[in-house]
Amino acid sequence: MRNVISILVCSLSALVLLTGCNGPASSNAFPPNVAGTWQAEGSVWKIVLSKDGKVKSALVPMGEAEVRPNETTKFEMKDGKFSHITAGECIAEYKPVERELFVSIEQKEIYMSLPGDSLTGNSLDIFRGPVSEDGKTWNAEQTTVFDYGPRFPQDENDVNNPQPLTFRKVEEPNAIADSNKNH
What is the model's pTM? Predict the structure, then answer.
């Protein structure tokens, strides 16, 4: 299991080193129909992509927290205790010929306060799939790799079997500022 996680993390790291945090410079022509806010059907996941092709934020299932690349998000739990998630690199790439959108959300440090206990770990979520011609639907496959310690092991089959997840565009890009503004 650790080998699978290591391979995925190394591959993603190599991609970041070779292409930068948001893909090669030539991919700066992020189509307007891809930028915007994408909400997953039947899931908490919400990913905001700016017009300049960057991940601006993501609402993640763990704590239903909104994370931003390379920032720490602190949030209060129902029992009044605090938890936090420190996001790492968040990558967005788009291949126009295939209309394929690739997004990865790294949560490099997760601390969740639980009643009488806590959970620590990290995760990497990868979404890949085609965007419809009208730019309103993104049919992604999601792969999640996590390490929450020995109490919550990940089944290797989960890593090798991406799950389908359909996103709908809920906000257009003209309502979202470029990521280099305001953040």
Answer: 0.80
